[in-house]
Specification:
The chain has 138 residues and is mainly β. Helix content is 10%, strand content 33%. Strand 1 and strand 2 form a beta hairpin.
Length: 138
């Protein structure tokens, strides 16, 4: 009698996971970090969780109002027995580019990394800030 792999009946993602495993999977090709993008009166702010990633290995650029974040991470300790039950910790390279909601001054951007969260603050260009227009009556 041959052994049959147990598959839960209500696992809608099993075929999806299998597809990615067969085609190199996210763990071999990298991952895409999640972003929060919001703005205030003077700046566009982007936050992304990058826990365990060395900020020295992250590159940030702004060109034509598009923010690009890219870098690499690798697992320092390897398990000799590669018979994983589940492997969800992502390693490899990552790349994310996002159009910003306003015209920004990329050369004046700043980035801060605290508690695993990268926060990028990019000042808006003067032409993108709201202007008050006074009405003159004759």
């Amino acid at each position: 009698m041959s052994m049959v792999k147990w598959r839960p009946m209500l696992d809608p993602f099993s075929d999806f996971d299998k597809f990615f495993e067969e085609w190199g999977g996210p763990s071999q090709q990298g991952f895409v970090p999640a972003l929060d993008v919001y703005q205030d009166k003077d700046s566009v702010i982007v936050e992304t969780p990058l826990p365990g990633i060395d900020p020295e290995k992250v590159n940030i650029s702004v060109e034509n109002d598009v923010l690009t974040i890219e870098g690499t991470t690798k697992k320092e300790s390897e398990v000799d027995d590669k018979n994983y039950y589940r492997k969800e910790v992502r390693t490899g390279s990552f790349h994310r580019a996002v159009s910003l909601p306003a015209s920004v001054s990329g050369e004046n951007a700043s980035a801060d990394y605290q508690n695993g969260v990268l926060k990028i603050t990019i000042p808006k260009e003067e032409r993108a800030k709201p202007k008050q227009i006074k009405i003159s009556a004759n």
